[in-house]
Inverse folding.
């Protein structure tokens, strides 16, 4: 198989006259294959097909959709090294990282397949008729969740597999029963096409309706804007910059029928170092912190961009050890030239904003990011809150606090976050307990004695958080709860068994977890 | 006890210089008691108290909040007939209806208390640590849902008890752990004050934090706008007009931190009369339809404002019987003069828009609404879709369709709805099956062989639906699922047992329904 540069419009492949090429960020060279950019006609065709596919796709037995997801996983693995090599050339991410990311991507698809079989997502509830009730009888009432409709998925630059064409958003939407129209990230169109081939092959193998999947490319923002504005699109999933997410929220809210936007946008992921932990293990904390900060060239949504600690000897030792660890960090190439430019701008903003530079990694060449640790007092940060804006990349700001109260107030003034981390020893428990309510206000995930980078894909994960970490703090974009974003409840009142949806019929209900008259019942294990 | 006209700012009672009085819609006379309107200072005080109360209130054991809700229910009942009489004078709703509505209001509070004890709302999930897993161990991950923060609740004119100060939105928000700041509806301030006294008494009796409840009055829209814009408010619950809901959505989206708005706004609740049902029972369908249309002077969100049927003898008999039933309907007083004015305008719009008047109720005097049934062909409606806009009151539009396809296409062109109803006999099953996907796209609740008015408060109810029926089609404002609107998930990673929230600790987890490594487990019955 070779890359063709074509768009995937349901089962069709199309070329257009407008082309663009990927750039190898390491060498600054354009890569082979010219990719077609989608115009109005291609967008229209993809959305029409997605709309047409919606009812047939959502009305398939859930187990059929599980088969589809697992087939996608198999076909991605079957792409072999070609996929990883192209992804490496397009993103400069190391092959080992990409191998891990592929495993995560495949694992996500399999987890959603298992979740479809478990049936929790159906949210079934039955309140049986009470014909004898006075003053009025109760009709039979049954609830299930149904998918919201076609979903626009935006590929993210920093996870070319796990948050791109067949990534977490796609897996959740397809599991829910929503056709997807993916807007590929222009930095890795070849990776996107390989994965699209895997999805297309899986759709053919499992006989999915035409239009359940389309992939559109567009090198600028016009295509994404038009996609979100299209009346057939019923929800949006996006991981990217704050400006990008806010723009999509605005378009979605201004539609004649507004739709939900799930944008994961901006987070500096505060880390609190409590005194007993600092006293006992400042050096190891410093090394672990620098490893987390510089992992993947700091290009994680959960990168620890802010550290808060109380002044003292422990903090001084932490700073020295972090400086030494940072000095040993080699510069590395960022995902794109634009990201690197923004990183340099962010570091300059910290510098000119009055933060003190504590330590730096070694300097690099072309597209390389130099890791950096700055510091500021809590009092200064209170005066210049813009210093706490996200700098995407391996830079972090240490906030020196005189008292726990000052630390707590600094946290309270922060915007919403994906994560908040506490490094603590048993003696820090009272302080951690005091901070916990504030951490709960601010973050979707609270981490003790670990680091925010590394997001487990499981049932209890929340990769979300109050605005502006995400556009919708009620949601997560990682883990099985992510399927909820694309579902809505429907109540069926007074239905004869033969008209009810399959899952709610007398013969099938027992198979699924449900609430009967409010009482929780387990599904029958197959 | 007597009405004082004061505002409730947490535990404080305040008067202001700006006053307004309620109007008896039957007589057009102002009622006794001048009510204080809240200004900036009162709003500020209420929001500050709600913010301060948030952590203490949400961190109470859930069973304490259940006690509070039940105490509110008791104190409402203890108000006795004074409450119903004032509500009757302020709304012109009959005492029998208000007695029923009080029972529903009390029942809602008790249902949410039971739901708090059942614990489903906590959404607990535990993925235990896998320290031996390769290539990387899994940390312990635990999820619970926490309340979003103080909620602004808007009293609705048409349910002075069940969707006002201690109505469904208040019960759901208080159950979730959110303090509420209620903006009372200016048409029934006395009813609001009585209920506020009950809530205040219950809060004192069960020792709730100061600020868990405030009631503000304001005769115009400025107060509500300022409330939604206040940074301490984290969600909005509203039932009312489309213009009102859209205005609140706009304010909420334009905040520095946007917040969710749950506005229940506009629905014409299509009813489909299928041929076999029409053939077998057109007369009884007509009588039931007219009863549903004119119930409560048509002032229900689920009023059947659109009827769709295939041309034929059955439909002709339905029209004749509906005409006869309508002619026997006495005019009745609407909730307010403004609502009646809008009703007359809506009926005129149908008239001048080219709909044919089929039948009318008898004419009334002052503030009375005259019930009306219009008809239009599906083809004409396709050309003039504005005829399908909501007319709040006892008016309905019959759409004559030549084919099932025309009927289905008419449904598909409608906006989102709270409900969609199908009247069918067994022979209609194939037609109903064909329509079902469209009905699912359009409505939050689908009803067979009953009528949309009458909303059961239970676990399987959905009183919601796609925009513009509500601002957020993922939600319901009636039934236990309504609590979800005010919750967000938080993940606790690597927590020592002593730092975990109570419900997630080893000793207490088994008591609540939860998922353990994805597997559903029942809570322990107490």
């Amino acid at each position: 198989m070779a890359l063709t540069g074509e768009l995937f419009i349901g089962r069709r492949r199309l070329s257009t006259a407008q082309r663009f090429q990927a750039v190898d960020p390491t060498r600054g060279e354009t890569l082979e294959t010219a990719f077609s950019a989608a115009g109005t006609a291609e967008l229209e065709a993809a959305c029409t097909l997605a709309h047409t596919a919606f009812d047939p796709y959502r009305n398939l037995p859930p187990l059929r959709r599980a088969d589809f997801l697992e087939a996608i996983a198999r076909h991605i693995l079957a792409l072999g090294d070609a996929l990883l090599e192209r992804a490496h050339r397009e993103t400069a991410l190391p092959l080992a990282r990409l191998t891990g990311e592929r495993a995560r991507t495949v694992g996500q698809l399999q987890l959603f397949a298992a979740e479809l079989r478990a049936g929790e997502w159906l949210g079934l509830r039955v309140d049986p008729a009470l014909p004898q009730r006075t003053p009025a009888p109760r009709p039979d009432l049954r609830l299930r969740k149904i998918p919201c409709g076609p979903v626009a998925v935006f590929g993210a630059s920093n996870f070319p597999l796990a948050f791109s064409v067949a990534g977490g958003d796609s897996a959740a939407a397809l599991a829910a029963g929503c056709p997807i129209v993916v807007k590929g990230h222009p930095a890795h169109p070849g990776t996107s096409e390989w994965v699209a081939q895997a999805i297309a092959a899986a759709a053919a193998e499992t006989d999915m309706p035409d239009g359940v999947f389309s992939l559109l490319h567009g090198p600028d923002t016009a295509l994404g804007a038009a996609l979100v504005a299209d009346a057939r699109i019923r929800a949006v999933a996006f991981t990217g910059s704050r400006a990008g997410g806010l723009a999509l929220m605005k378009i979605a809210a201004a539609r004649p029928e507004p739709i939900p936007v799930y944008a994961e946008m901006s987070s500096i992921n505060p880390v609190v170092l409590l005194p007993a932990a600092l006293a006992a293990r400042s050096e190891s904390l410093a090394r672990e912190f620098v490893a987390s900060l510089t992992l993947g060239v700091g290009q994680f949504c959960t990168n620890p961009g802010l550290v808060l600690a109380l002044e003292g000897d422990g903090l001084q030792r932490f700073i020295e050890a972090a400086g030494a660890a940072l000095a040993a960090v080699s510069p590395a190439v960022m995902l794109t030239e634009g990201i690197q430019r923004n990183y340099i701008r962010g570091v300059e903003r910290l510098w000119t904003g009055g933060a003190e530079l504590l330590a730096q990694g070694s300097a690099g060449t072309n597209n390389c990011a130099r890791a950096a640790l700055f510091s500021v007092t809590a009092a200064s940060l209170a005066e210049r809150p813009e210093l706490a804006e996200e700098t995407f990349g391996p830079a972090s700001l240490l906030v020196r606090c005189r008292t726990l109260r000052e630390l707590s107030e600094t946290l309270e003034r922060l915007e919403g976050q994906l994560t908040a981390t506490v490094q603590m020893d048993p003696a820090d428990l009272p302080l951690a307990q005091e901070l916990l309510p504030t951490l709960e206000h601010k973050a979707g995930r609270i981490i003790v004695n670990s680091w925010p980078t590394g997001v487990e894909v499981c049932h209890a994960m929340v990769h979300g958080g109050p605005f502006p970490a995400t556009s919708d703090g009620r949601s997560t974009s990682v883990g099985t709860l992510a399927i909820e974003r694309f579902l809505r409840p429907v109540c069926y009142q007074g239905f004869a068994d033969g008209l009810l949806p399959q899952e709610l019929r007398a013969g099938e209900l027992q198979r699924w977890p449900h609430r009967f008259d409010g009482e929780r019942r387990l599904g029958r294990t197959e």
Q: What stands out?
A: Chain A has two domains: 7-16+47-120+148-265+475-484, 270-448. The first strand of chain A starts at residue 7 and ends at 9. The radius of gyration of chain A is 25 Å. Residues 310 and 404 of chain A are 7 Å apart (CA to CA).
